[in-house]
Amino acid sequence: MIARKLKIILDMIKFEHTIFALPFAIMSAFVASDGLPAWDKIGWILVAMVGARSCAMAFNRLADAKIDKANPRTAIRAIPTGKIGKKEVWVFTLVSAALLVFAAYKLNRLAFALSPVALAVIMGYSYTKRFTSLSHLWLGISLSIAPIGAWIAIKGRFDWTPMLIGLAVLLWTAGFDTIYACQDLDFDRRHGLYSIPTRLGIRGALWLSSALHVATVAILIAIAPLTGFGILYLVGVGIVSIILIYEHVIVKPNDLSRVNLAFFTLNGMVSLVLMALSVADILF
Fold this sequence. Notes:
Layout: H1 2-12, H2 22-33, H3 39-63, H4 65-70, H5 78-81, H6 86-107, H7 109-124, H8 135-155, H9 160-181, H10 185-190, H11 196-227, H12 231-250, H13 259-283
């Protein structure tokens, strides 16, 4: 019974999409360590990431339960259909939050002290589309915590390098989330919800998304001399650029049929490719 409910929750929060931010945390940890981080550090960073992302997504499903029920695209989710109760999701959310805090405690004092701030940011995102079109940037800030937090986990302090990696993650996330939000343009306008597509229209939103991704690539290139990254990292940035270009080619103002491919598959490739070649560059 418990295993079945847990499976429903993990499917509801798309647990496999932890892959979006996790690779940037690993990349940042390797940069901070200037090589292979201690295994216990990597382990607790992974625990913190899983706790943070699971808490954020489960809380989002709770906060948006009524909206999801009214939206034909999301009405099939677990809470609106009654496959899982809010009580069970609340328990999962609180356990996930506790997992993040405990992992931060095991890492170092600064990480532990900042863990409530991280929770406030990632959970606060769920309400932003009720009052601002910049909700996509808030989501970007939420994911940017991954590389910044991983750096703090290793170094125990802030530095400019993770802030720049975090900025790249912020802009990349805001860009792809803007594309994703185009699907709900009509629904959001009817229900008074805010997004970049509701403000600029689909064509304007896609142009802005492109600009955000151009800025992402520019920042990733600028990071190279600061970190000592070499050719493998730059090859990774090149591949990421190609993936992002393809993402924008397949999504058109009059054809949003491949938004899910752009949002889920291609962006998962972006983070994995950049992590793999960054780590390889550091190690070899």
